[in-house]
Design brief:
164 residues, three-stranded antiparallel sheet, two-stranded antiparallel ribbon, 3 helices
Length: 164
C-alpha cells in the first residue's frame, strides 16, 4: 500500500537500492526468518533492501493495478488481513487503510467494479510474469480478488486527490 506504515516495523519501508516501496506482505520461513516482498512485483535486478523512508521519497504505484501514474488516495474505515498460501509458500498481508489509485482504478472503486479492477491488475501480472502456467495466473487472480473484497468490506471512503 503506497506510502504506508509497515505493520510489523512501524516504519515506511522502501528499497534503499532503487527506491521502490516495500509492501507489508511478508513470507516467514519455518525458522522465523522474515523476507520482504516488492510492492507491485517489481522486476528489479536485485533483492529488496528494506530501509526507513519518507513517503515523499518512495516510488509509489497504484495499489490496484500497479500503474505508476497514481493520483488518488482512498482511505478505509476498517483494517483487514489477507492470508494466502500454506506452509513455506504462505504469507500474510495487512491492510493499513490507505490505498493509492490511478484514475481508471479510482473510477472502478467508485463503481465498486471488482471485475474491472481484477482485469487491470491481471494485465500487469501477465506482463510482469510472462510464460507462467494458467494455475499461477488463477492463483494470482484469486489473491487479488481477496484483497479487493477485503478493501470493499473495509468501507472505503471517497477518493481524495493526491498531491505528489
Amino acid at each position: 500500500m503506497s506510502g504506508t506504515e509497515n505493520s510489523t516495523s512501524g516504519l515506511v519501508t522502501a528499497c534503499s537500492v532503487c527506491g521502490d516501496l516495500i509492501n507489508t506482505i511478508e513470507f516467514t520461513a519455518p525458522d522465523g526468518e522474515r523476507t520482504w516482498v516488492w510492492a507491485h512485483g517489481s522486476s528489479a535486478d536485485h533483492d529488496p533492501v528494506p530501509a526507513p523512508a519518507d513517503t515523499a521519497d518512495v516510488a509509489c504505484r497504484c495499489d490496484f493495478c500497479s500503474a505508476p501514474n497514481w493520483g488518488w488516495t482512498i482511505r478505509t474505515t476498517k483494517r483487514f488481513t489477507v492470508v494466502a498460501g500454506e506452509g513455506a509458500n504462505g504469507y500474510q498481508a495487512n491492510d493499513n487503510g490507505r490505498w493509492s489509485a490511478c484514475l481508471p482504478c479510482k473510477r472502478h472503486v467508485v463503481n465498486r467494479d471488482v471485475a474491472r479492477l481484477l482485469h487491470r491488475a491481471m494485465m500487469e501480472v501477465r506482463k510482469s510474469f510472462p510464460g507462467e502456467s494458467q494455475e499461477f495466473y488463477r492463483a494470482a487472480q484469486k489473491e487479488l480478488e481477496g484483497f479487493y473484497t477485503g478493501f470493499f468490506l473495509a468501507e472505503p471512503g471517497e477518493p481524495e486527490r493526491t498531491v505528489k
